[in-house]
Amino acid sequence: xxxxxxxxxxxxxxxxxxxxxxxxxxxxxxxxxxxxxxxxxxxxxxxxxxxxxxxxxxxxxxxxxxxxxxxxxxxxxxxxxxxxxxxxxxxxxxxxxxxxxxxxxxxxxxxxxxxxxxxxxxxxxxxxxxxxxxxxxxxxxxxxxxxxxxxxxxxxxxxxxxxxxxxxxxxxxxxxxxxxxxxxxxxxxxxxxxxxxxxxxxxxxxxxxxxxxxxxxxxxxxxxxxxxxxxxxxxxxxxxxxxxxxxxxxxxxxxxxxxxxxxxxxxxxxxxxxxxxxxxxxxxxxxxxxxxxxxxxxxxxxxx
Length: 304
Fold this sequence. Notes:
By secondary structure, the protein is an all-alpha fold. The protein is built from 13 helices and no strands. It has helices at about 1-10, 15-20, 30-40, 45-70, 75, 100-115, 115-135, 140-165, 170-195, 200-235, 240-270, 275-290, 295-300. The longest helix is centred in the C-terminal third of the chain and has 32 residues, at about 200-235.
């Protein structure tokens, strides 16, 4: 907390705005946007790499949150003031930092994959500044950020060799996705069945259980999508730049419509089981990785 108090003395409205915006690089929306753009328009292998690092990292992150159940800095020390604009995204337990974990999944994987030095420097800078912003804003301690930083580094470098040679050894990913599914199921069972103490924060526990179903559905969707693509779809990411823009905008709109549409459908029929999160994200990932890519041949012809 001493470091957080020291950083609080450095705050200015300008830095609050800049770092408050930059911290969103570790948000779920930015991660999904970067991963989808890379997956659809740059490199299918790199896209799978990002999604795998993101999903595995999130499973580990969520598991550690429920195991240690460390409250946020302002909860531990009521006298400590955070930058209010960051409060809305600072949900759940504090340890470890989810935003720091996410920024590795997007910019860490991108930096490891690319051969361009300038892009690697930019990605490294974004990672460091995002991690720093979590402490500057007062929503995480150095321990929260440091552990996520270490986990992110390990996942980025440990998983890279599996995706670098994906075309030569495609069956490796079935084993990897199988391990991910087991981890996701193990986390779900832990979140649902572990006898948590009576003083556990109900909202944080509910969030952890929701994330457990979401992650399991997403992992199963990615596994099935990979099999479908290898066997039937074989989509190609290449297209002229303006066709790529149309591809991303159209696909993103479709994904959002299906994601929200399923949510409204389940609510309309009174199906409120928490497992609907797994169902929704299974179909969203399936749509993103298999169904929408069926249109990519048409997009590739637009520039010819």
